[in-house]
Model the fold of this input.
Amino acid sequence: MIRILQLPNTISRENGRMSVIMSIYRHIDRTKIQFDFAVSESSGDTYLDEIEKLGGKVFVIPFGEVSYKSVVKMVNMLLKKREYSFIHYHAISIWGVALTVAHRHGVKIITHSHATYFSDGFMKSIRNRIFSLNIKLYSDKLAAVSPEAGRTLFGKR
Done:
């Protein structure tokens, strides 16, 4: 079986990326492909119960404890403990640091661009550009929801 570690940052039902991921997850052959999720804590209405019912696992870093160090630690632990064929990073978030860890473990990386801009705010835009620096270095496959989203994150690639 192919196991894919999804890095969407949240499993909130209010998140558009998660709506797309869950639509795919419901329709794939889960005897051949299985998703697990590494996320920051989500409050409110989440997909946790549905993910678990579909056979996936959710690994959570509690709110307030999310940092570069905690993401690296969790991803290292997951890649040592479980057999993942791929990491699927849904840019742009602090979870981008996981690409370096996955590369060191020899796990293939799919990076998926969902956005046509880095942020509405100037400081967040700078932060998100920093989070995205290792994408070009380590991603094995690139995907985007539109040509504009692809150009924003991947340039001409």
The longest strand covers residues 2-9.
